[in-house]
Design brief:
Shape: elongated
Radius of gyration: 66 Å
Largest sheet: 2 strands, antiparallel
Structural class: mainly alpha
Number of domains: 5
Strand content: under 5%
Number of helices: 11
Length: 409
């Protein structure tokens, strides 16, 4: 860029010899571009307007900070900063830190707190990975961060703290605090007014606490008890087994109205008690007596069975001996029947033809009877017709005679 800063030709030194009256020209590096101005503005914004090198500037991600403290509120319900106005001890904001539980069984609230701790730790690890991430990294911290946010949102949507209706300290701290206040009241150190009525301010010899029942807490207790019952059932299933085919074998000899696991255990205990050495000898003696009786009954039944078998065999022998005389004549009888077979066939055909002829004769006789009946009816009608014709002829002849007589006269 060229800048003209010299004097013009009409100045007061224009007519003097040896004076350069040409305008002065100075060369500069050129005008600053818009991109450089934007970069300088961004650097100033990042440094907060501080350009000193002695001040350490820490980079901060505003979006990450916003997500960290999003939907977080300070609970000032129990906070008290009245200083000397109040007799009791001042209470500020309550800060609570969670730690993982031991090997004991976790409650749903403890499990919720543990998951919050693990998710927060996992988020910190992902942030560290983002800070030290290289282009050749195998994992994608951005995708992991998205999944962690989704899990955190699902965990917050459960509202387990509202369902449990307990403070993060737990019910034990509240009950301890209440007992401490009662003990202090008994010892003469009256605590602050808990819930005294405003109408009677002078009477401070008692403490009034208000208890509120919430159905959510009762529902939570029922759910926790149901979870405990389910755990106990799982333990019983592991001990007894889930095979339903074994249960009838255990409860087969029980009362039908009392088929329970306790009754089966009592029955098994009674059976195991019989295995005592003192009782085994008694049971052995009883079994020997029963075995002896069974042998006697078997001998008696064996004799009875043999007598019945002998009687049946004798009856069959008598029956077969009667057929010995007939068995010799059976071949002659069969030969005679073979020779008479054709005669029997002719006789059967003759009987069939005779039956046919008798049927035809019956039909003919019936037809003749019907024809005779018709003939009689025809004869009767002819007789009637002849009489009618004779009467008609006689009447005609009489009329002809009368006509002739009239004609003659």
């Amino acid at each position: 860029m060229a800048t003209n800063t010299g004097t013009s030709g009409s100045s007061k030194y224009g007519g003097i010899e040896g004076i350069d009256n040409q305008p002065d020209v100075f060369e500069t590096g050129g005008e600053p571009t818009k991109e450089k101005e934007k970069e300088k503005g961004k650097e100033k914004e990042m440094k907060g307007g501080i350009e000193s090198k002695t001040v350490e500037l820490i980079p901060m991600n505003a979006q990450a900070s916003y997500e960290q403290f999003k939907d977080k509120y300070i609970d000032s319900k129990d906070a008290d900063f009245t200083d000397s106005i109040k007799d009791g001890r001042n209470i500020g904001y309550d800060t609570t830190e969670y730690e993982l539980a031991g090997d004991e069984t976790e409650t749903p609230l403890q499990k919720y707190q543990r998951l919050k701790i693990e998710i927060s730790q996992f988020t910190e690890e992902i942030d560290k990975i983002k800070a030290t991430m290289t282009e050749e990294a195998d994992i994608n911290p951005v995708e992991l961060s998205k999944h962690v946010k989704i899990l955190q949102k699902q965990l917050l949507d459960t509202n387990i703290e509202d369902l449990a209706n307990v403070d993060v300290k737990g019910d034990s701290d509240i009950s301890k605090k209440l007992l401490a206040q009662i003990e202090a009241f008994k010892g003469g150190n009256k605590p602050a007014k808990a819930s005294a009525s405003s109408g009677d301010k002078s009477n401070t010899d008692y403490i009034t606490y208000q208890l509120y029942y919430r159905p959510e807490q009762a529902k939570f207790n029922v759910l926790s008890k149901a979870a405990e019952v389910e755990q106990k059932l799982q333990k019983l299933e592991q001990i007894v087994g889930k095979d339903s085919r074994r249960l009838p074998a255990i409860t087969s000899d029980l009362d039908p109205n009392n088929k329970s696991l306790a009754a089966a255990i009592y029955a098994l205990q009674a059976k195991f008690s019989l295995l005592d050495s003192a009782k085994i000898e008694h049971v052995d003696a009883r079994l020997q007596a029963v075995l002896q009786r069974i042998n006697e009954i078997a001998e008696k039944t064996e004799g009875i069975d043999k007598a019945e078998e002998k009687s049946k065999v004798s009856e069959i022998y008598d029956f077969m001996s009667k057929w010995d005389a007939i068995a010799s004549s059976i071949p002659d009888i069969t030969a005679r029947l073979q020779t008479l077979k054709s005669l029997h066939h002719q006789a059967s055909t003759f009987a069939i033809n005779l039956a046919g002829f008798s049927n035809a004769q019956d039909q003919i006789s019936n037809a003749l009877q019907s024809q005779a009946k018709v003939l009689r009816q025809v004869q009767e009608s002819l007789v009637k017709n002849m009489t009618v014709m004779q009467s008609n002829v006689s009447s005609i002849e009489s009329r002809i005679a009368t006509c002739e007589s009239k004609l003659r006269s």
